[in-house]
Design brief:
By secondary structure, this protein is α/β, with parallel strands linked by helices. It contains 16 helices and 13 strands. It binds adenosine-5'-diphosphate. The site of adenosine-5'-diphosphate (ADP) has 13 residues, from helix 11 and helix 13.
Length: 393
């Protein structure tokens, strides 16, 4: 009988799952999600090649995360095809300063992760809820927490520090960085695709609805564009990216904004959506003739170009650049514009390779090699989870 690995990625309005068979390396057997939680819950599951296996809608928006998670688990358990669930791996946004690697969840670990909720109030509670639910529904099942922050624990102290009084740094107000599971995956893939370059200085641009960049030197994170929260750095779908904190003071003092309004503004009403006034979806903006859509796209590119300079400064040079996530993987015109704005740094794009979505899209003589590498955070969680429980055996 083979082993099955369950990967859970739970957010405020969705619970995503991926199920893997463990035959040495994890192989995807099905994946799916419940979306629209608290509005119109909708479950879908599909096989590894995208064929739909199940679908269900609920009319009752009051169904709790917990009840919906139970439905999800029932479906998963009836689709194990004879294999045994041996571990559940969870995406957990925050591991604080302590966790630099995935952790097998014990009551003590769970208690400590709960204390980190104030550092990521929009994500951490939703990440931890299925861990608790599974502990009750499946007592004895090994669970592993995989952190978005862990990959960046290699950042030097100076990178992690804000110019704030020391006591605030000591209590945890520091730069953590996120999207670590994606960067970890890309760093591993690069050792397979271009082993020599993987040992050098690489800038990775994770351009999804959340977007950030990471400087990776010899496989380890040196710095990244997100900081204390997932707001900093690049302009994103609905998040501001880097913003002078003076703006927040102004909103509070001169316009009477409260904390909730500021939170909604910074996380939900800004970014591509706020600047364009049209959409947070890059495809819609790229297809639009509205000058506001063009301005939003220009700003997105400008910030990526600036941050690339900043990452290169932190690594003292640049040998490779990687595009990943929704926009990075699927938009040749955007990749083209970003690469052209970085020509001065030694990026020479092969436009044919770019249009054809090839893995290497720079010219053979380009001083900086450019790649498109699809990310797979779930696969990374599955691998980490297997390894973490093997260590405890
Ligand atoms: P998430 O952060 O939600 O996981 P994804 O990595 O799936 O996000 O990326 C979502 C983003 O990718 C959306 O803004 C979407 O518009 C963008 N995207 C997907 N396909 C394309 C495309 N062909 N061209 C431009 N943008 C795209």
């Amino acid at each position: 009988m083979s082993d099955a690995i369950l990967v859970i990625n739970a957010g405020s309005s969705s619970i995503k799952f991926s199920l893997y068979r463990n035959g040495g390396t994890p192989v995807l057997s099905s994946k799916g999600q419940i979306e629209g939680i608290a509005v119109a819950p909708h479950f879908q599951a599909c096989g590894p090649n995208g064929t739909q296996l199940a679908e269900r809608r609920w009319t009752d928006p009051a169904l709790s995360h917990r009840e919906l998670f139970r439905h999800l688990l029932d479906w998963i358990e009836s689709h194990l095809d004879g294999s045994t669930l041996t571990v559940a791996g969870h995406r957990v946004v925050h591991g604080g300063t302590r966790y630099s690697a995935p952790m097998v969840v014990t009551p003590e670990v769970l208690a400590e992760l709960t204390t980190l909720i104030p550092l990521a109030p929009l994500h951490q509670p939703h990440n931890l809820a299925p861990i608790r639910a599974l502990a009750e529904l499946h007592p004895g099942l090994a669970q592993v927490a995989c952190f978005d922050t862990a990959f960046h624990r290699t950042n030097p102290a100076v990178v992690q520090t804000y110019g704030l009084p020391r006591e605030l740094t000591d209590e945890g107000i520091r730069r953590y960085g996120f999207h670590g599971l994606s960067y970890d995956y890309i760093a591993h893939r690069l050792t397979e695709i271009a082993p020599e370059l993987a040992k050098k200085r690489v800038a990775v641009a994770h351009l999804g609805s959340g977007a950030s960049m990471c400087a990776i030197k010899n496989g380890a994170s040196v710095t990244s564009t997100m900081g204390f929260s997932t707001l900093d750095g690049l302009v994103m779908g609905t998040r501001t990216g880097a913003l002078d904190p003076g703006v927040v003071l102004y909103l509070m003092q001169s316009k009477g904004y409260g904390a909730k309004e500021i939170e909604t503004l910074l996380y939900k009403r800004s970014g591509l959506l706020g600047v364009s006034g049209i959409s947070n979806d890059m495809r819609i903006l790229m297809d639009s003739d509205d000058p506001r859509a063009a301005e939003a796209v220009d700003l997105f590119i400008h910030r990526i170009a600036r941050e690339t300079g900043s990452l290169a400064a932190a690594m003292e040079g640049l040998d490779a650049f990687v595009f990943t996530a929704g926009i990075g993987e699927h938009s040749p015109p955007l990749r083209s514009r970003i690469c052209n704005s970085l020509a001065w740094m030694g990026i020479a794009l092969d436009e044919g390779a770019n249009q054809a979505d090839q893995t290497r899209i720079s010219r053979a003589d380009s001083p900086v090699a450019v790649f498109v590498i699809p990310t797979d955070e779930e696969a990374m969680i599955a691998r980490h989870s297997c390894r973490a429980i093997q260590k405890t055996l």
